[in-house]
Predict the 3D structure of the following.
Amino acid sequence: MVEIGDLEREKQLRKAPADLPASLSNVVEYRKSGLSLNHVVGCPLDCGYCVRHLFDNFEMKRPHLVMSDEQAVAALIANWAFVPHVTPVQIFNRATDPFLPLVKQHMLHSLELLDGHGLRNHVLVITRWKVAPEDVERLERLRHLKVTVLVTWSGITDPRLEPVDSVIAERSLEVLAQHARRTKRILYWRPIIAGVNDTDECIDSASALSHFADATVFTGLFHRDQIREHFRSAGVEDLYQDVPRRKILPREVEQRILNRYCGTPIFRKTSCGIAYAYGEADYNGHYGIREICDICPSNQIELCAAGHSTPSPNRLSSLAQRVGLDPAGIEIAAEKVIVEDSCEQQRYFIQHSLGFQVHDRAEPHLPERHGRAEEGWN
């Protein structure tokens, strides 16, 4: 196992091996919250539920550099899906933590390169590691990008699930609260797992911690086959029965959280929390699915309502053709666009271009589940 101290003693990241799988060597990928830039891969934190299990990367404990920051930023800007000032961007959210020693220098430099282009895109930086005052000072010097640091906190105490002490995230959020003005900060309360970290004590801790944040976003667990097998190998009994495509957060758990939580405004969706922090309409257009909004502050609902408009057939047809979808299979409703035979990247590009929800007919978002897996809602 690689220790954090070992990384701190190194002077630069090692170059990634030439035989990286395509899932890692392709440094730009469209994910739900935007284009994801990942030219550093490898992480020693060993969180059992990490998506690195899905990219054949969990055993790479030492961060490696796939390409230079300049090359990566150029690849991002040149990507077919990147729209200046519009497309939300994530950095190092798939295969490492952006605030690890040495990694954060590449994260900060990449942001400075993007900012140097005058881009005003939202950028999401997700971490559970140590944010130092000098890190915040560099973020604060950015002039154009809308940077949000989402501090992942779970309150989980079982090291088989999460060996990283939640106190680290708590301190990082406090540092951001003390030093950040332009940079926004989110308490990213995740993953919430039924019977593990959904107790009154955990909810109260999140409520107290949220006062260091501009907003709180809460969500459940990705429970894929690879993650379940990892937990089993660690001696953890199955947390849920299903291994669905969407995150699991049972209805009863959500309701208990909403009944007890008493902190900074709390949101079901990441983009909703970011929109609130910036005083903007949600760039994912969740306002169209009104049941998602029933916990949002009234002033945020007004902002999202003002920014929500049904797209014209011509505009939608043009976007569909750009991503290779058949315009004939598209249905425009008041709350969402329905497409057929699509992949996530196609849907997300259209969604972010319009600020309007886009769903595939074969994978509908069922009422009241807020885009979550069915387990715990039937």
In short: The chain has a mean pLDDT of 94.
